Amino acid sequence: MKVLFDHPWPFSLAHGGFQVQIEQSKAGLERRGIEVEYLRWWDDRQSGDLIHYFGPPSPNYLAMAKTKGLPVAVTHLFTATCNRSLSQLKVQGLVTRTLLRLPGWGMIKNQLNWQGFQRADRLIVGLRAERQVLEIVFGISPEKVSLVPLGLHDDFLKAGAGSRSEPYLVTTGTITERKRSVELARMAIEARVPILFIGKPYSLNDPYWKQFSALIDGRFVLHRDHVAGREEMISLLQAARGFVIFSLYENWCLSAHEAAACGLPVLLPDQPWSRECFGTAASYLDARGGSDNPARLSAFYQACPQLPAPGIKLYSWDEVAGQLEAAYQLLIKR
């Protein structure tokens, strides 16, 4: 089997968890003896058995792949959509299906990513909440969707708990609006809870980064740049008192799973993704930004020494690769 990976956005423009997912999925598949190449847009002689497209595919892309006899599996992160309420999803689905049926859209209709999800040969997502989006909003049959979790590098899986001797909580991720870094920093100051933010902005000229950097006081808001090496990241996590994240939305949150693997209790926004992944094994903030969040943060901080790490299933990328291979085989055997 030979799989071609494709992705529309250069990692140099936007680093993050999707990059880790793509790179580690490729490595895991290769360890299983599956040939994987990044699709080379300039190479008209490149061949493969199928394409795994990471992102929203255009209908034209899928149509051209079909002319070449290449089935396409699609993974898109429904981070915002999968955290909407069931009633919101039903309304969105009604609007989407109505628009898709309207005549006279011509070329505009053919460019919509909605059409791409319907025309893809297989959809691969990590959460039941994301599968629900595909079914309710886009009318995708459940039989066309594979549920494949995200994994952790073996270094994290083998790490275990550390000293947890530092007096601060830790949060990891890009300093950006989606992670609500400024909001969490202000919460830390109000609750008088020290938090170490590990991450970098997309740009030092980003106004949001400037807001955040003005809050760094070395007392309650601590910061260090993104840590490139896993060994150093593991050491930082193992030394922290606990982990917190206040993202506006996520779909799996590798950071929270890495923290759990390193023995930390976790404090998460109360949303569908976090409840599905962690259930009652985590502590929660009001995702809407409730006025009692500083008190929740303070209570978590005080309780951390007695709180265990979440006892949840953590997957290796080799396990993930095995499930991806099973999904690919469904396309090849058609």
What is shown here, in short?
The chain has 334 residues and is of the alpha/beta class.
Question: How would you describe this structure to a colleague?
Answer:
The chain is of the alpha/beta class. 40% of the residues lie in helices and 14% in strands. The protein is built from 14 helices and twelve strands. It has helices spanning 17-31, 59-67, 86-101, 106-110, 113-119, 128-136, 154-157, 181-191, 207-213, 230-239, 254-261, 272-278, 293-303, 317-332; strands spanning 2-6, 35-38, 50-54, 72-75, 122-125, 145-147, 169-172, 195-198, 221-224, 242-244, 266-269, 283-285. The strands form two sheets. The protein has a six-stranded parallel β-sheet, sandwiched between helices. The chain starts with a strand and ends with a helix.
